[in-house]
Design a protein that fits this description.
five-stranded antiparallel β-sheet, 300 residues, Cytochrome Bc1 Complex, Chain D, domain 2, 2 domains, Chalcone isomerase, alpha+beta
């Protein structure tokens, strides 16, 4: 609970930010983050670095590395960062003031103490030094039990097509009979369910615009990849609860049906986590409405 003596100060800050946002709307996000940070600024005396390390080891290290050196160039290093900065960002993700596909899922699951502890731990780590290498990804988040479904085009139900105008791609969705039967019966998808998505480049016209077929879908050109999700008994037991999608596993295959090496499934898991009430499948509604015989075929 806030101390009574702090209320006038916080009220003055809120009023100041409010007037600032009216005069200069582009400062709204920054102002919100500053106010949020005031509730999450780590205290050197209160923070538990050991608890922060435990939380990082369990979840955060999947992307940011146990030592704060990230696993990939597009993920920021947090080693040696100021704890106030880390706490402010986590608070912004937690409140929704800042958006990110992964952090918008993880941060709301962190308590105020978690934020303080994680910020203190990362801050205690030495920053990037010459010769330092990226952290290795967590083994339990790179492994998958998914196998490529042979003859899926003849045995799976093709139930949905999606145009992607911005990337000039088109996706075709297939589900095996286990998944299709459960979805059409209005039941959660059980173990043995599998979804596969073909990702194609759209065929382009002379103006480099996707060519649309008579059914309204882009005409597919080159197959780029195949994304799959499959679930089996206890497949998710080694995945941190903050990321776990029950017992779903994910995989991406090349057009030659070869498994792509060393994917970080933390991204897939975090992306699908918000779809918990739909069996973690974004297109569950479309699958449930698919006809028992035949399916939406699109243009190919």
């Amino acid at each position: 609970m806030l101390q009574t003596g702090l209320l006038p100060v916080l009220a003055d800050e809120v009023i100041a930010v409010f007037h600032q946002c009216i005069r200069r709307p582009h400062t709204a996000l920054l102002g919100s983050m500053v106010l949020l940070a005031s509730f999450y600024l780590p205290s050197a005396q209160a923070a538990d670095i050991a608890a922060g390390k435990a939380k990082v080891e369990n979840v955060c290290s999947a992307c940011h590395g146990l030592n704060g050196i990230s696993v990939a160039d597009h993920i920021p290093n947090l080693a040696g960062q100021k704890p106030e900065y880390i706490a402010a960002q986590l608070a912004a993700f937690r409140s929704g003031a800042r958006k990110n596909e992964i952090m918008s899922v993880i941060a709301p699951q962190l308590s105020k103490a978690d934020i303080e502890n994680v910020a203190a731990y990362f801050s205690s780590q030495p920053g990037m030094v010459p010769g330092a290498v990226k952290s290795a990804m967590l083994p339990n988040l790179t492994q998958t039990r998914v196998t490529f479904p042979a003859n899926y085009r003849s045995t799976f139900k093709r139930y949905h097509v999606l145009n992607l105008p911005d990337s000039k791609q088109v996706k075709f969705y297939y589900a095996n009979q286990v998944a299709a039967a459960a979805a059409m019966a209005g039941k959660p998808l059980p173990d043995g369910s599998e979804i596969i998505v073909e990702n194609y480049s759209a065929k382009l016209d002379a103006a480099q615009k996707p060519i649309v077929g008579q059914d309204g879908y882009f005409i597919a050109d080159a197959l780029r990849s195949l994304a799959t999700m499959q679930r089996g008994a206890n497949w998710g037991k080694d995945i941190p609860e903050m990321l776990r999608n029950e017992d779903w596993n994910y995989a991406i295959f090349t057009p030659e049906h070869q498994l792509r090496g060393d994917p970080n499934h933390a991204e897939c898991l975090a992306c699908h986590k918000p779809a918990k009430d739909a069996s973690y499948v974004f297109t569950l509604g479309e699958l449930g409405k698919a006809k028992s015989a035949g399916a939406d075929t699109g243009s190919k």
